[in-house]
Specification:
The protein is built from 13 helices and 24 strands. It is an alpha+beta fold. The protein starts with a helix and ends with a strand.
Length: 585
């Protein structure tokens, strides 16, 4: 109770003291907060990384080999003489190609192993929000709203109102023994003994987590999602199925893969070069589905996985070169945050509590600090200005380390190690001095972006402003003239039905779609954004839709059925890869 009280008072102190300063010095209607300001900073920091990123060229060289029996497989060039080599430009790539074309190839090593992939723990608040964003496209706010409905109770006819899941605001992965027993019984009955581990899986909750509530799970395992489908809304069904599948999967056996790594040496024949070229082929085959028969965890990074099936290959076997495929790439900046990855970042950095993530994201969107671009969170000019103001005048409030340290101290209040009033006194005295100092600075003038549109009420040139639903046109004569208009964003392509301009519009839920400037005379509409491709059949523009491993292109002309797909290139960034759940057996 003391920790909860301390959090509430801290949040109010920060909000009530800084928000009026923002109103006076930046713009009316703004707010600051102990966690929302840090979340805005994290998004702005990432945007600065992206803006300052300088792409670097690199090349990959894929090689196809053929065995004596005619079977083929793919390998990749790795380096020379046992040392990994990066190919930085075309000249280096051409040099490698000359050596490869002149070489004889022999298998130097074959490694076979079994790899086990373990199921993810049951959901806690943050992981539910992340997975619902990845798999269902739900915002954190929408996820929590639907989860609240499932927890409070859904009308199941003769049974009345029934709560279908446990409490949805928790950061504990603990599962009751009764629920574990129910899950194991269900797995044994519906999947068989092979899918049941010899011992129940028990997951370890993080040390800083509150353990008052167990993990998010179905209240009764035998209420299968399909049985309830007609009694739930579509959104309720999807989220319940996600929770149900994840919980059952967390008690199932690991998935097992046969993996194979083949190292190949190439020795030039005619070119005088003492180098030994090193290539590697990797492949894997699932030999037991385990939990993946029911549930596969979503991903943030859409990197290609190596799933080719390799033929039987022996050490010292000679191989024949079939073809070489050099490909130019450029490194990419770190990706913008999505709701899923922002929640993950906040959790990893120890910022806020699971129950605060959804309202925090909603707040920074509603304040106009951040806007959604597809699933990406992009800081607005206003968000950047407010973040700069906060960093210049309230550096501790937007300090990630300070905020994380404060969360730890609040946890100590909960454990009885720190008195909450003493903690607040220690924080407030220097904080109040900072507020007083900030009140003395000059007002920040937000630059006005002028448009070419003339106000049809007073004749002034209208200006572009940002609001909670995006940018719009406003008359600079406010408050004498209150004229506003929507800002039409051109897509840069012609309408396939009437040749008018195609514009990008937004729904009330901020989802983008394409429409025609001549609406309602022309009813062209598309949910998919335009690409730079032109339809080879009718010359209309083609829309683009990104899938997990491919990009789907479709002609925007309703009268034309042309479509095509292409493989996505694997990303290469400076980003540190997250730890894998996979272990070698």
């Amino acid at each position: 109770v003391d920790a909860q009280q301390a959090r509430r008072v801290l949040d109010r102190l920060v909000g009530y003291e800084i928000s009026p300063v923002l109103w006076k010095k930046v713009k009316k209607g703004l707010s600051a907060g102990r966690v929302q300001s840090v979340a805005t900073r994290i998004i702005c920091d990432r945007e600065r990384e992206i803006e300052s990123f300088v792409p670097e060229e690199y090349w990959t060289v894929a090689v196809q080999f053929r065995k004596d029996d005619g079977l083929t497989f793919d390998a990749n060039f790795r380096g020379k003489n046992g040392k990994k080599a990066e190919i930085k430009n075309k000249d280096q790539a051409d040099e490698i190609l000359l050596l490869l074309n002149d070489s004889e190839f022999t298998v130097s090593n074959v490694k076979k192993s079994k790899k086990r992939k373990n199921p993810a723990p049951p959901f806690i608040t943050s992981t539910l929000q992340q997975e619902a964003s990845r798999k269902l496209g739900y915002s954190a706010q929408k996820t929590m709203m639907i989860a609240q409905q499932l927890y409070e109770g859904v009308d199941l006819g003769d049974e009345g109102s029934v709560g279908l899941i446990t409490y949805m605001r928790t950061d504990s992965v603990r599962i009751s023994e009764g629920a574990i027993s129910e899950a194991r019984e269900y797995i044994s009955k519906h999947f068989g003994e092979d899918y049941l581990p010899s011992e129940p899986r028990r997951y370890k909750t993080k040390s800083a987590a509150q353990d008052a509530h167990e993990a998010i799970r179905p209240t009764y395992i035998n209420r299968e999602p399909e049985e309830l489908k007609n009694m739930l809304s579509n959104d309720q069904y999807k989220l319940y199925k996600l929770i149900w599948d994840r919980f059952i999967a967390c008690q199932m056996e690991s998935a097992v893969f046969d993996t194979m790594t083949v190292d190949i040496d190439g020795v030039p024949r005619k070119i005088k070069d003492n180098s030994v070229l090193n290539l590697r082929a990797t492949g894997q085959k699932m030999v037991f589905k385990g939990f993946m028969a029911l549930y596969i965890e979503g991903k943030d990074d859409e990197e290609d996985e190596t799933n080719q099936l390799l033929p039987e290959i022996q050490v010292n076997e000679h191989l024949h070169l079939v073809k070489i495929d050099p490909v130019q790439h450029f490194t990419e900046p770190p990706p913008r945050y999505t709701e899923a990855t922002l929640v993950k970042a906040l959790e990893e950095k120890g910022i806020g509590r699971p129950s605060t993530y959804a309202p925090i994201i909603t707040t920074i969107l509603n304040r106009g600090y951040v806007e959604r671009n597809n699933k990406q969170l992009v800081p607005t000019e206003l968000g950047k200005i407010v973040n700069q103001f906060m960093m210049a005048n309230f550096p501790e409030i937007v300090s990630i380390n300070f905020t994380a340290d404060m969360e730890e101290r609040l946890d100590k209040v909960e454990d009885g190690q720190v008195q909450w009033k003493a903690l607040l006194r220690e924080f407030y005295t220097p904080f109040k001095e900072t507020v007083t100092k900030a009140e003395g600075i000059n007002k920040i003038e937000i630059p006005v972006e002028e448009s070419d549109v003339i106000c049809d009420k007073c004749g002034r040139k209208m200006v572009i402003k940002s609001g909670r639903f995006g940018k719009f046109l406003a008359c600079p004569g406010f408050p004498e003239c209150k004229n506003t208009k929507p800002l039409l964003e051109e897509a840069g392509v012609k309408c396939p039905k009437c040749s008018g301009k195609v514009i990008i519009l937004k729904t009330k839920r901020n989802r983008k779609y394409l429409g025609c400037e001549n609406y309602p005379k022309c009813d062209f509409m598309s949910w998919d954004m335009p690409s730079d491709k032109t339809c080879p059949k009718c010359s209309s523009f083609m829309t683009k839709k990104t899938k997990t491993n491919t990009i789907a292109y479709k002609c925007a002309n309703p009268e034309c059925d042309y479509s095509e797909e292409e493989q996505k290139q694997a990303r290469r960034t400076r980003k540190k890869k997250s730890e894998s759940k996979e272990t070698e057996a």
